[in-house]
Amino acid sequence: MSVDHGGSPSTAAHRAEAAQRDGARCVVLTVSDSRTVATDESGALIERLLVDAGHAVVSRQLLANDDAPLREAVEDALARDDVDVVLCTGGTGLGARDRTIDVVRPLLARELPGFGELFRMLSFQEQIGAAAMLSRALAGAACGKFVAVMPGSRAAVELAMTRLIVPELQHAIRELRR
Question: Do 153 and 162 form a contact (C-beta atoms < 8 A)?
């Protein structure tokens, strides 16, 4: 049941309106020092889940855990007129070379703390227990685009994409365009 507070459209109405729009145009960035294009299961899964949901992947890249190339790739994606969404996977751990969150966060105009909170809650409940507190995940808005960063494991990507990102992607884009 949706609730209408103060005469504003309900979340259900927003979702219904957003569902009428064309699919999102997405950039997928995998950050890893150990994966190759052939072994990038997480990036491939993101691409498949987006396409299956009616979205387009306009670019998919594999980047090393290095600040400058990652920042450049994200900034380039944010500058594109044919991109609505930038999704990053990998480089989110506690290791010294895990820099994705640190590079992407300053590029965001607005952060959505609920994404990381919900991701860790679901991860705790459904996958890895207390080790979820070691996960860093981030989402927000930059340059009118939805941006999300998720851990690099296939299980983490599947959780983030199927439970959080894909179900709300059109809704998030609708909100960014209002």
Answer: no
Contacts of 45 (CB under 8 A, 6+ apart): 154, 157, 158, 161
The answer to whether residues 54 and 48 touch, using CB atoms and an 8 Å cutoff, is no
At residue 8, the pLDDT reads: 52
Annotate 75-116 with DSSP letters as a single string: HHHHH-TT-SEEEEES--SSSTT--HHHHHGGG-SEE-HHHH
CB 26 within 8 A of CB 55: yes
Q: Which residue ranges form the domains of the chain, and what is each CATH number?
A: 24-83+92-177 (3.40.980.10)
pLDDT at 70 over 70: yes
Provide the pLDDT for residue 3.
41
Position 143 pLDDT exceeds 90: yes
Residue 14 has pLDDT above 90, yes or no: no
